[in-house]
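Revision sheet: structure tokens.
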Amino acid sequence: MKNKFLQLFTVLLSVFFFMIFFYGKIIFHPNDHLTTDTGDGIKAYYVFADHIKNDTSYHQFQNMNYPYGQTHIFTDGQTGIANVLKYLSTKNPYFETHCIGIYNMLMIFSWMGCALFVCLILQRLKMNWWFVVAGSCCITLLSPQIFRMLGHLTLSYTVFVPLSWWLLIKYFESKKRTVFWTGAIILNSIFWFFIHPYYVVLNSVFYIAYYFVHFLQSSKQINSKLSYLLHAVAQIAVPLIITRLYIHHYDIHLFRSQSPIGFWDAHARFNTVFAPSHGPFRDIFNFFFLDGDLQYRVWEGWSYIGLPSVFIAAFSIIKMIRYLFRKKITLIFKPTLPSILKTALWASVLVLLFSMCFPFRLGLDFLLDWFPFIKQFRSLGRFAWIFYYVFTVYSVYIAWLSYRYLRGKNLRLMATTFAAFFFAIYLIEAISPHSETSDQAIRPVNLFNRSTLNDDYRQVIDSIEVIKQKYQCIIPLPFYHVGTENFGKVSTDTSIRNSMLVSYWTNMPLLSSSAARSPIMEGKNSMQFFSPPYFKKEIEKDLPDKRPFLILLSHGDLTVIEHSWLMRAAKFFQNDKFELWRLPYDSVFKDNSAWEVTHFNDIKNNLKLSNGFYSAWENEALFYKNFDDKQSEHVYSGNGALKANKKNDAIILEKTLFHFIPDKDYTLSFWFYNKDELRNQGMFVIEEIDTSDGTNRWTVFDALESMTIDGDWSLVEKKFRPRNTTENISIIFAADKYLQQDFYVDDLLLKVTNADVYKLNEGKINGKEARIVKNNIPVFEEIK
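Predicted:
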């Protein structure tokens, strides 16, 4: 017992000093730093800190996705820990003002928790004390979750997998306290759900695989199959049921995406697990074996097991092949390993295959129709973490057996050299990612700490505090709305960071949002906010009053639509980082169709008619196609629309020769049917083909970023600048065999970007009267 305690102490002390070396600035001053101030990282800090400081509910988040808000568990905000600190902050404000520091310390010291439970697992393999110590440190420090400290912070808790595995080991070791350990497993899974919902799913998949393999390996030795089954079902199902009931009770938002983007892309690959993504050996691997760029892009699948484990994997495969030829198949499925590894090893292999999107990638994608809940796991690559921890423990044990074998042959120097190299390579490979991560993590200052705010932030916050009661919400420009998978827009890191920080300090809600599984219709309504005032906007009925909106403008390119709405507002504040603009309520919702028609009639005689469009110069409307010759059950205007299926390449515009004005931007637009989930998912391509040499260029875009939405139709627009004055252009929908759904396109227009082009209209458009069409947007008669 004393020796085991010394091992634990040595492991914890070693990992502690390692973390001090790389993250000392954060450890000694945790409330002065953010490990990242961009993207999902700043979002995670924001929804955590803002929930503690500003929310009145323990379950809802009010300052994002205005006017709807969001259920906090879907925000990536560590609801469980945030609510504990929220409650404690009512007793002592320290827990509010220092919540970021607490967040940072939990994140970093989870590495010591990981080392602790890895050590407890390795101790059961009865190896030399220094094998246990070195193995525990190396496995911990090479953990693939390290890069989550720069992005998905709530998924950076390295303690999770070793703790969950250790609890399962304790259950199987227990003879009389099985109920206690089953209860501990259930509570552990529920606890981690309230850190991030993915954790409970990771546990469930691991436990399902574990019990499946264990039953096959040991069915004859299981004394009470009923008791065994009850415990297995309780450990797997009870956490899922309880957490599902929590969501059912507290999630007041409807119509969340059931088919999130990423299932077919964000999975592990062979090279993300068995080849280094960082470190001194990466370039060597990529040069000889791998597509390094592909590996680096699929970062969700990063679960590199280390070069020593790669050699152990190769050795194990060769050994299994030998067993196969010798017809010793039983030794493959029931390896002569300690009980904690015999089952876990094969269970982790099954989970690894799942993380690699098997068997669905083998043409068995129809299984997703039978088990549609699986499509919720859009980041399958995360499941490879389980394989990482189990296989590295297995590798250390195999290395120990090799070491012991060499010593048994009286080759002590060779044994010691082998062991030293084995762990030295692990350590060398661990240093590189920590060096890279720590270099980035210690730079950002904690902008949720008033003392670290610069003058630009202080000025805009103080200005908003004076007038915030006069405004409904903040509209950040460039705008972003992420998470519905069907309607949304990405933005700049600057806009995201600035808007979230200003929202936190002023307690003003954002029209924008960044949250997983955001309700589709809420996202659609938010994007439709930017449609012309004469469009019916569903969000209007959900707004509490008619106060104006506060535009927070950050540096970054605006879309044409964003710029047009900025021009409807009035600027009243500016410094080096921010601008504040007042956008009146009527500018957004008061029908101005009569003015648009009158304006057209006033200028009509000065316009030129070309290609059926009126414009200031000829050929500003270069091409128009109404698809009236196509049969379709969904039509935006006229008598027809293009209908095609996403599983095949679809030609929207056949190769056509165009003569462009030099140095001009052009905008392609068309109306796209947006009703039903998945409809807006898919990729369109503008293909430019040089007439002189036949070379081509692709401009890629999709439908979900449309900010002009007329009911079930969205105006999809893409700006591009032709390479040459004469080119062949074709418009293509790129096939996606996993999106077997029809789509509909109507009224395609190619025009000069900064030109206003008009077309007279006869008949109804989308069931409504429109006298003119401006820039492919119908100007409907006054909304009644």
